[in-house]
Amino acid sequence: MAAPAADHRPGGDACLAGLRAGVPRNHYFDRVDPEVAAAFWRLEALGARLVEIDVPMTCYVQAAQWGLMMPTLMRREWARLFQEVNVIAAPAVPVTALDAVSDAYVRLSSPADITGFPALSLPVGHDAAGMPIGIQLLGGSGRAW
């Protein structure tokens, strides 16, 4: 029979001796109420070894948070839009065909990538140099016409 796991809860029968707890010097304690910060140090009184650490890449936390939240919010707003129209007819790319793909070249397909709504690129002609021109149709998910 396996030994029971150590009880690391404050007030448990076992102390926190041997537990190494990383205490971030950055991000987590910025703008934290002093009472909240003081309560955290109770771990040390229970025997935990507190190790100061620097959490990597915290400068990107807010951008990542927005990157996770915004597609969900955009999808909801686009779903409302698709209650008004069956499809959105928009340029697929801002210019005719290029030899190299760049961020500017794919920026018009990004909304479909972000929201997950289906998009279809269709050829609609050629420019004066004979390069293809396309449009995209973006559709609502599962909406009957």
From TrEMBL:
The residues covered by the Amidase domain are 65-141
Q: Organism's domain of life?
A: Bacteria
SUPFAM superfamilies per record = Amidase signature (AS) enzymes
**Enzyme Commission code(s) on record:** 6.3.5.7
What InterPro entries does the record point to?
A: Amidase_dom (IPR023631), AS_sf (IPR036928)
GO molecular function terms noted in the UniProt entry: glutaminyl-tRNA synthase (glutamine-hydrolyzing) activity; transferase activity
Q: Which UniProt keywords apply?
A: Ligase, Transferase
- Pfam short name (any one): Amidase
| Top EC class for this record | ligase
The protein, known as: Glutamyl-tRNA(Gln) amidotransferase subunit A
